[in-house]
Amino acid sequence: MNESAIFRELMEVYKDKVVNTCYGFLHSREDAEDVAQEVFLEVYLSYQRFRGESSIATWIYRIAVNKSLDVCRKRNTQKRIAFFKKLIHIDHINTKEIVQYEDDALTMMENRERTKVLYQALDLIPQNQRIAITLSKFEDLSMREISKVMDTSESAVESLLSRAKVSLKKQLENYYRNNENV
Question: How many domains does the chain have?
Fold first, then answer.
């Protein structure tokens, strides 16, 4: 298989996963897609230098995480738009549909708000915890895969995930305590 065919196959297999990983950090579909393009450009340019010390998936995830973090650093901001903002739209639903599906719309809006709150809370926890929980919960990576992406031990990942859950719980409790009417 030639290099171009390998690259096309990697794109097919990992494109959505890379975009979703980037989106978990950037909270913008357009930015995630832009960074994903940069990721695959680097994969293409660096493929010959891939040493095979980890799986190709781990290598690609590591590039995606690093490039996403670079964009976050450049933005120099703590708060970003909620993770699903661009995914969940109700603007296209007409009035009749809203009346017809009132319960569904209300549920969707409640879920949208919960999602927004969750990702705002994620933005407030330490970066390493956010990376670990994003890779674990949103990308379904194993402890081993996360440890390779983050270049740390599995026990460190377990610790990060445990601390992330505690941090998230604290952030969410604070939010709901301060916004009792939500």
Answer: 1
